[in-house]
Amino acid sequence: MKTWLLYIALLTGILGGCSAAPPRIDGVSWEVFRLRSSETGNVREELSLFIRGDDDDGRADLEELYIVHPESRLYWRLYPETWEERSRGGVSWIGSSWLSGTAGVPRGEYLLVLLDRAGERSEERIFIDLPSFQDYDAEEEYPALLRREKDFLIIASSPRPYYILGEDTEGQVRVSTETDQESFNPLEYTEALGGMFVNWYVFVRDSRGWYAGSGPYSDFR
After folding, report:
1. Which DSSP category does 189 fall into?
2. Which of 24, 25, 77, 138 has its CA 20 to 30 A from that of 146?
3. pTM above 0.70?
4. CA 166, 40, 201 angle in degrees (round to 5)?
5. Alpha-carbon span 212 to 163, nearest angstrom
6. DSSP assignment, residue 202?
7. pLDDT tens, 146-156?
């Protein structure tokens, strides 16, 4: 999350020129997570946003992704060392699972700017139209995870599927999957990561448009 002065510099400096062959944003996927801490019980919001980006010079030429919310004068900058990369149906998406605002995820219009190494760019706009974070019900239910021998048992009153995220100690999401099962064995995922320690989160889709979840739940051996 950055300040408005840096956003002005972004528009007047980095984004000042035109390009004949810019990178492409071929798709955008976003969700709002309403997350209840398993440690404190506090609730916060996070924005998960990914784009399907490409470049005629190869995807390795993609350099930076800016996610800008002009109304709140905030933006986020992602680059190859900090963005997450996911594969969906054999197609690669880049972005982040955890983008935080100062008081929940800002509503309204967002500008997405993808830059390549030559400074060429592509832009896309999205609009997040959900009830405000302040409108949430403190008594609403959130799914939870309960240890049961080698498995985590999913405790939820909402209908399936359940959405599972696994985060490493550096805050990077390493596991993102969904399941119709009422439990899962974390080792089935961490073994493919070389036995990496992972903190776990569980979510369900709320009928009002966001994903309600809880975590982190510590990995165990």
Report:
1. H
2. 138
3. yes
4. 15
5. 10
6. E
7. 999 889 999 99
